[in-house]
What does this fold into?
Amino acid sequence: MNQHLRPEPVPFIDVAAQRDRLGKSLGEAVSRVLGHCQFINGPEVAQLEAELAAFCGAKHVVSCASGTDALLMVLMAKGVGRGDAVFCPSFTFCATGEAVALTGATPVFVDVDEVTFNIDTASLKRGIATAIKLGLKPRAVIPVDLFGQPADHDAIGAIAQVEGMFVLDDAAQGFGASYKGRRLGTSALATATSFFPAKPLGCFGDGGAIFTDDAELSPRATRSRRVMRKGSATS
Ligand SMILES: Cc1ncc(COP(=O)(O)O)c(C=O)c1O
It folds into this structure.
């Protein structure tokens, strides 16, 4: 290899290139919103949710302010709180465990597989046993589709079912990827994603969404979104 060759650095996130490519249509879309003034949950949001649902095959999509909010909305909608154990992989972005801690529940970190870096199912089983010994109630597991690579959802779902837990897939880094021929968004009771600019589907700012086929969870998550907006408006 030529040690003297110094290639130009490639920017990790080049939002300007994306903006240039979208060009005029971006300005027109912003002008449309400024024209009708429905800035929050206006018609574009409903259109985005419908297009996201069609893309990944989920029946219900609830968009929100960030990937962290998306995780939190599902946990709130399921009534997760103090005394509950929620299992997270120990190799993830901090928001996975942060969302759990915000509900008052205990994030229990379990090991990751040395090849995929995704949650290790043998360690998950050990984590559940430890949580029970500590007097916590196993409520949920949050597998993370790290670096775009789906977790082992079938194996995780089977463990969760035996333990009476629900699965919340953290697909912040994996939206658009497929697991066994199906796009992420339908591999768990609920899937959360982030539209942070560096993510597979980035926006110009913060954004997120949840995906579910569960007709009861969807309106509950929408209510959690309302509660969170009110909370931030008064703080
Ligand atoms: C695995 C994972 N979960 C959750 C999040 C949180 O998303 P956001 O930054 O939109 O709150 C991120 C973002 O970096 C992430 O990588």
User: Anything to note?
Assistant: Residues 77 and 221 are 5 Å apart (CA to CA). The first strand starts at residue 60 and ends at 64. Residues 66-68, 92-93, 95-96, 144, 170, 172-173, 194, 196, 206, 208 surround pyridoxal-5'-phosphate (CB under 6 Å). The two ends are 57 Å apart (CA to CA).
